[in-house]
Amino acid sequence: MKWYIGLGTAATVLVTIALAILGVGEQARMRDFTSAFEARQIENGAALFENNCRTCHGPQGRGIEGVAPALNAADLFTGARLERIGYTGTTEDYIRSTISAGRPVPSEGTSYPQRMPTWSQEFGGPLRPDQIDSLVAFVMNWEEIALARGEPTPSVPEGEGVGTDITVSLPEGDADQGKALAEGGLGCVGCHILSNTGPAWEGGGGLDGVGVRAETRFQQDNYTGAAESAQQYLVESIVQPSAFVVDGFDDGLMPQNYGDRLTAQDLADLVAYLETFR
Questions:
Q1: Domain 175-274 has CATH 1.10.760.10
Q2: Residue 112 and residue 132: Cα distance in Å, rounded?
Q3: Looking at the DSSP assignment, which residues form a beta bridge with residue 120?
């Protein structure tokens, strides 16, 4: 019988040693598991953002002026934005609650024309709780790069602003440069290509592109602006957006300060780009 006791003791010792070895590596294993889970969650959040949020908050979450604020921005993670609106919780809680329940009215001090829709099923939206978690993780993933980048430098023209005179003589425009402006800091594509917030630039479905529409728009009976040519109409739509508002869209959606923000060359480049949409 003694050999049974010895065998049992040896087995107990071996099991204890095995458990100790497993225990030593358990923390590292759990860290690896957590890291892999968080990576998949952020990846899922990126896909959800691309499909549901990009058209308003812009590529890489940098915002679109006049449409929706930047999420990939230092003031969101330093707490400055939360302080401005009187929110006392954490940044993560603010992001989660805003995505989940939406914002029926803009925050005080902002003038974004569109309300933030409700996304969580808990509040009548289309996304499951795990999908909300993934979106929150994706937005929070920007914290390090947003803080490293710091606050954005105010956008000012590298020269004198062109003003609001639609008869101004413009230099020759570069459509490629205009495309870069529209897709970059101005964020025009967010409203006119990626979403239907503003009149579509591209043609399709029986609709001509904006370059073609501009050639006759200023001659139509319901036109309320002062343009006398296609180029003047395009200029007017940029620097005097309230002079004529296309049917089906609301006044005030377009920023009113492009005359101050754009140089004559910038404006010429944008017009040249718009003229490519046939």
A1: yes
A2: 23
A3: 127
